[in-house]
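Annotators were shown the component list below and the corresponding predicted structure, then asked to write short factual statements about the assembly.
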Amino acid sequence: MSSFDERHMVARKTGVFSRIRLALLGKPIPTARAHHERLGPLLGLPVFSSDMLSSVAYATEAILYVLMLFSVAVLRDQIWITIAICLLIVIIATSYNQTIHAYPTGGGSYIVAKDNLGETPGLIAGAALLIDYILTVSVSVAAGVAAIVSAYPTLHSYLIPISVVCIAIIAWANLRGVKESGTAFAIPTYGFIVCMIALIGFGVAHLVGGPAVAQQVQAEPGTIGSENGHLFLFVVLRAFAAGCTAITGIEAVSNGVQAFRAPEAKNASITLRWMAAILTFMFLGVGYLSLHIPTLKLYSTSSKQYMSVVSQIAAHTFGFGSTFFYVVQYFTAAILILAANTAFSDFPRLTSLMARDGYLPRPLARLGDRLVFHNGILLLAIAAGGLIFVFRGELDALLPLYAVGVFTAITLSETGMVRHWLKLKGKGWATKAGVNALGAVLAGIVTIVILGTKFVEGAWIVTVLLAVSFLLFKLIKGRYTAITKQLEIDDEIPARPTRHTSLLLVPRVHKGILAALEYAVLLDPTCRAVHVVINDKSLPETRRLWEKYGEGVPLTILSSPHRSLIEPITNYVDEMLEEDADQVITVIVPEAVSTNFWHKLLQENVAQQMRASLGRRPNVMVTNSRYFLR
Amino acid sequence: MSSFDERHMVARKTGVFSRIRLALLGKPIPTARAHHERLGPLLGLPVFSSDMLSSVAYATEAILYVLMLFSVAVLRDQIWITIAICLLIVIIATSYNQTIHAYPTGGGSYIVAKDNLGETPGLIAGAALLIDYILTVSVSVAAGVAAIVSAYPTLHSYLIPISVVCIAIIAWANLRGVKESGTAFAIPTYGFIVCMIALIGFGVAHLVGGPAVAQQVQAEPGTIGSENGHLFLFVVLRAFAAGCTAITGIEAVSNGVQAFRAPEAKNASITLRWMAAILTFMFLGVGYLSLHIPTLKLYSTSSKQYMSVVSQIAAHTFGFGSTFFYVVQYFTAAILILAANTAFSDFPRLTSLMARDGYLPRPLARLGDRLVFHNGILLLAIAAGGLIFVFRGELDALLPLYAVGVFTAITLSETGMVRHWLKLKGKGWATKAGVNALGAVLAGIVTIVILGTKFVEGAWIVTVLLAVSFLLFKLIKGRYTAITKQLEIDDEIPARPTRHTSLLLVPRVHKGILAALEYAVLLDPTCRAVHVVINDKSLPETRRLWEKYGEGVPLTILSSPHRSLIEPITNYVDEMLEEDADQVITVIVPEAVSTNFWHKLLQENVAQQMRASLGRRPNVMVTNSRYFLR
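Structure shown to annotators:
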């Protein structure tokens, strides 16, 4: 924290609003503080993996749910789909490993695509990622709430309010500056990993030790699809697409290589490998167990009887209502909330990058300025909350939107890396290009599969948002380019003012005004002063005091028939400019500063009104000279 | 309109908000324009009389309603109460006539009471008047809507929405600047007067010509009071108090003497006399007729069958549904709306007066500044609308609150006039003092009667509001006095900065920055420039361009690890102040000005954030140097 901020807080402590803000948001904390402590793989894993690992909570269920809608008979095919996705995870993780080494300063999809493929692919990747961060928040929170609801079914009626409150709490924590230590991430992440390993271990042991019972999956009546000649391949592809939500979050490490301690690339690489290994293990484990639970039931999240697949595995293994059953649910909810939380730090970071390139409003680039950072967080919270609201907090409904963005970004990033190796041609470039090309082709196919199979259910929304965002970026860039052109320095030198006059506003004569007078004289020894008569009674006193303390500066008295302060001054300034167009005028407005909120209401805020009124005159500046009240 | 305003509007015409504002509020019009054309009695009457004359619409009914609640048998006593009130009107008008001559610059109750009786009575009068302006709006609108509802009974269910819309329209018209000519006032006022004279004339002719029928007043069943031993005197006093609402608005002329053309006092005096004469005639006429309509029914305004007494007289005289019946209703509604409208110009004028004396926030004194004027109008509209809402738009419920304030103010004003003559002792001072003393005593008695008889029904609310307002005025004055004391110039001369340094922010190098540089150099030839690195890529270009165009001003490059613009600059300014505490620093923030609303979103508003961050440092000023974009 800068020394100023501390001083500032102390100075403002007395204000009512400041006190409320202090209570709600705490002492202001620089947003980037988390990066002061560089991470090793042990803390890097929890910081970067929550998004990816947490998808274990819903990916298996998503596959099963699609298959079930076709036929109970094909549910067993789930395990092959899971295995295929795990292979995909390994391949994509391997190629992202190459990105880490190629972009040790951080190689997000936006940067890799823009650097190697050009503006359009870069912008599409950027748009895809931004949309995906919003969906990460919505989906993770919806899944976290689903885990809670699985443990406490009576809460099902409060799906939307619980989700919205969760988002509000995460946003609030981020406004306060939550990322103070990797430890805060370590507990829920490692807790979740330990839980899942224990669950899978016990579950498998249970199966081996227990009696061999044929599985009789029960599905909700009426939702089972017809077993007629529907294209089986389409269903499998759609189930695959649904399961691909497990891969979301894989790019997190390559985005944040700079957060690791030296050797950055190596530490990041270790973390990514561990992440992929743990995810693969958990995903396969949950997939295997879900096929061997005789009483598995599949519900829509909109159903009042909803229990997640993971919670049913936990209930079957440890017993519903047992302590460990609840522990699994809590840690699942916790890592999902954490996943939502990471989106809150990634979103403003990406908007900052894109703003620096002129594709988003430039103020967004200044991530370190509290106002800008806060706006980013609020924007994300409102968008994610809006999605929760529109989709009634139902995970089922939100999932089809997810993963389109991620795979679009992955495809572009991988393709970019292929271009990168082709241009660079370093040691072993052909192999590296081959790995990335494989990743690109697979990710491209997955993108097409997701789009094709989920288009009607929601992927079309993401497509539209992508197109709109892309156009918006281009529009913004266009405007900035136009401005740059307008402001380009050319040979014609415009007529510039050669003299400076300062004009002091004198509402009354007191200490504060005398300080402003000092400033006015410092700026311009031949400065002028004006007094607008609002209160006739005080005029003689004003004259008398000015005579005495005005340091010889001439005081012009302006009458104001309509009791306006602004009008006579703008008129006077216009007269001054008519007399001598070759001058620049600084209007100095003395302003009282109160620390107390109620007292502030009694103060005039003339400078702002003056600025608005004089705003179109190029050669007039408005400054307020402040004096401080107890 | 000042030439600037016109230019300003043209310049801003392209903005979306400006266009909406232009459509809603029209071209900005100085609020005081109405006073450019001075009024004779012919136009003065409509401008100042609507509040007073319009009370004919409800005063008779108010008397009858109170009497009816006691007993139908005493309804005939109404005429005696009406005659008593008319006498009171004559006496009070006569004494206000003296005020006009004594205070030709405008003698509102606040001024007269404060000048002659001191601060406390002045503030009570001021508070009473402010509360009364709010009630004038509520009561007049409620009565106007009652006139409409009398003509169109099906509208009764929409009492509140119609009233609120009326207030909104009046407020909107005032924000637009409605008072462009006395003619706008003349039509409804003279229309109403002609209507009432015609109504009374035809009504009396009807009675004389028609068959002599004994009146059989019908009242709502169940609301008739018991005819037991209730104190008859109390009922009469209460009915009298209810009728005194007819006198509200009598002080309008003496408030606005300056609006008349020379000889101001004489013209005002003529207007006041005519006003009183017309009111007396109409009030007596309506009172007389109401007693001679055989089928008169008295309803609460909350009743669905409600018809006002005036509308029943019109219906009896011309037939319900006849053209002239509707004409009477329209003009009644019109003058009532006009009465509400006058409160919208009186309220801000009084707050301006009180603000000049330091009893209300000082910015309110600047009536001529649009922002201030608009806030006053919105405040009044919200307060009056709130009352309508709380009292469900029912005139019955609002009337008990009315008149307490007016009579408190009249009493204080008359007492003040007595003091005035006793101090001044001019020609015939004894007679004049006597007239005012009579007015004071009578008004005082009426105040006590109103308070005593209407206290429970609502006068207590006004009493509480009076006390709260009074305390608020004292608090505000206390704060201003404390500030004045703090800022009083004493002998100790504080250490003042002796050097001035200007510090230019250079985000990029372009034409706009070069203009800002010219200004910075004009202010301080040894000025400094700083560039905060938000975008590393553009740094070399910035350096190169500054080398070329920077006019030799040294450019300090500040790194910003957290990508903050504000933090590095505040730190740098602090370093400068540490180096040399004896200087004053002007931070010059170049700022792009766009005319287009959407473009504005893309612009940085750094100056304001800078001002907030540097706000507590006494020797640092922030100025924005603007450059203009197409």
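Statements collected:
1. The first strand of chain A starts at residue 218 and ends at 219.
2. Residues 61 and 309 of chain A are 6 Å apart (CA to CA).
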